[in-house]
Design goal:
2 copies of one chain form a homodimer.
Chain A: E1 2-6, H1 15-27, E2 31-36, H2 38-45, E3 55-59, H3 72-75, H4 81-90, E4 96-99, H5 103-114, E5 124-130, E6 135-139, H6 149-165, E7 174-178, H7 188-200, E8 204-209, E9 220-222, H8 225-251, H9 254-274, E10 282-285, E11 290-293, H10 300-315, H11 318-327
Parallel strand pairs in A: 1-2, 1-4, 2-3, 4-11, 6-9, 7-8, 7-9
Antiparallel strand pairs in A: 5-6, 5-10, 10-11
Helix pairs in contact in A: 1-10, 4-5, 6-7, 6-11
Chain lengths: 328, 328
């Protein structure tokens, strides 16, 4: 089993990425290809002890940055780590590709270079996130911002397979993110998607309102990419703002500072539950290859966990299983 | 100045509504009409001392409940508190109408009975919410789930007037909620709305990503009603889930319980900042009359604060001012 990791992707690349890869090499039985600027990669690797026979470097002279247009890896920077990494899996030199780089560029490169898997018309990005009951899977969080109802159905079918095979939930429930519970809610798009999903998805549990996203009401929550992106970003932003507000207020009171010190072990436990990096990267589903997009701010632990999730994807042959599920 | 309040609207009606009205009568120089089932209203009022000459009851025999279709007050329950209340302002018997009842029914009754104000094609619901810098105004949070770009422009122009006149912010900034900062982000709808707003709204500051909703990046944030509804509900849900998770973990540790007691004054201060009820109800803008929709779970304080905001709307003649702004 061989996984390509983009050494140049993410806000803390290549340091955080390479540290994460080293952690993964020690913990998992996997071979890794690091793709990116060879000298930079070697410089970082020199800091670590690791099983050298399981790590390979493939040089890519260019880097797609966060401001580059989505089409860049295909049109302009054809020797970028994203392009070279994607082609490695296209040409069967490896089983999967992970990058914490430019999301739009990853979606475009995967879609155009790998093509779509049979039965799926558009790519969709899913994320695993914590809920009161454990975790759920939200898809799409930004690959396809103007989908058709059929694309949501396809996302629903893929999500079910992902959550069953990779997260180990048996017969996952699937809900449609909407602005009301009744099937009559939302505009024409939402109603059409509801009908399709009701008809074709086993264990479809109907609409899920946004205030139920974190309660664990459904194992898979299906949304268009615009709304899904808003959901994850508003959640991220709210947590950050609340934490800033709390810190600002706590600083004003010595009693509160004392109180926080007593609470630290508990707060750290809560933080661990709420920490996205515990749950690995975000799989790009629908393309004809295993692609994982990690958060731009990925820590070494997040990279390691993305590798862990990718190993499960490979072990469970998820593209083949999704294909069968969609053909049914 | 006379404000109609729907005694039967909201999860805790009529108790919470009437308690809020009593608080308002004591605090503000305003006359109130309570509309609803007269006997129930009188029974509640009997609990309080209040300036009787400033409170009137108008009987309405029916109640629109949360499960009724939006069209109910216009088609079926024509003697409901929503219908009677709306007609009171239509017939100039009062200056404004506040209800914590069925949002869809309030939007339909207002739109159909009052009609739209000149220059505005669709209604939009705004809410004032707390940010790290103070507060912002998000519009639309659910009245119009499939708007055209022009409707977003109209919401932007109305929002600017509302925030200036009612919240006292001079030259409020206006941002478009989108999934990226650049003007090229989002689908065709978002791009068209961006262009219109850039051209016609003074102090338009461009796209606001969802993770900036709570930082106070713009005074007014414009969105379609579907996405805006998702934003407020996901925020509500996340806060509730985080608070449940925290409580669950705190209970496991005596140290953490002790810590929380030291922090209580600080936590209450933060809670006050984050409490929507501090900021009054949600104005329904665009209709030809002053209509305020309060949260279904409105507390007496929330009702009182909705009355406070409505008084400002009346004092500042906001419909006339919005009309001028849109004609420009």
């Amino acid at each position: 089993m061989k996984i390509v990791v983009d050494a140049m992707g993410g806000d803390y690349a290549p340091q955080a990425v390479i540290e994460g890869v080293i952690l993964a090499l020690k913990e998992f039985d996997v071979d890794i290809i690091l793709v990116g600027i060879e000298d930079r990669i070697k410089e970082e690797l020199a800091k670590y002890e690791y099983p050298k026979e399981r790590l390979e470097i493939v040089h890519a002279s260019e880097v797609v940055d966060m401001h580059d247009a989505a089409i860049t890896p295909v049109r302009k920077k054809r020797d970028s780590s994203i392009t070279v990494g994607t082609n490695l899996i296209k040409n069967k030199k490896a089983d999967a590709f992970i990058s914490a780089g430019n999301t739009g560029a990853m979606v475009a490169a995967s879609t155009l270079l790998l093509g779509m898997m049979p039965g799926v018309e558009r790519p969709a990005i899913g994320i695993v996130y914590p809920t009161l009951k454990g975790f759920s899977f939200l898809i799409d969080v930004g690959a396809n911002t103007e989908p058709k109802p059929e694309h949501l159905l396809q996302s629903g079918l893929m999500a079910k397979v992902y959550v069953r095979e990779v997260l180990g939930v048996s017969n996952p429930s699937v809900g449609l993110l909407n602005i009301g519970e009744e099937s009559s809610k939302g505009g024409g798009f939402a109603k059409d998607a509801f009908k399709l999903m009701e008809e074709k998805i086993e264990n479809f549990t109907g609409n899920v309102e946004a205030n139920e996203v974190f309660t664990g009401k459904a194992d898979c929550i299906i949304s268009d990419g615009f709304v899904g992106n808003i959901v994850i970003k508003v959640s991220e932003g709210l947590m950050e703002s609340m934490s800033k507000l709390l810190k600002r207020e706590i600083k004003k009171s010595p009693m509160a500072i004392l109180g926080v010190t007593f609470m630290l072990p508990t707060l750290n436990r809560v933080k661990k539950v709420a920490d996205y990096s515990e749950y690995g990267g975000a799989p790009l589903l629908g393309v004809n290859g295993l692609v994982m997009i990690s958060h731009g701010r990925s820590s070494p632990k997040a990279i390691k966990n993305a590798i862990r999730a990718t190993i499960k994807e490979i072990e469970h042959n998820i593209i083949e299983v999704m294909e069968k599920e969609i053909k049914k």
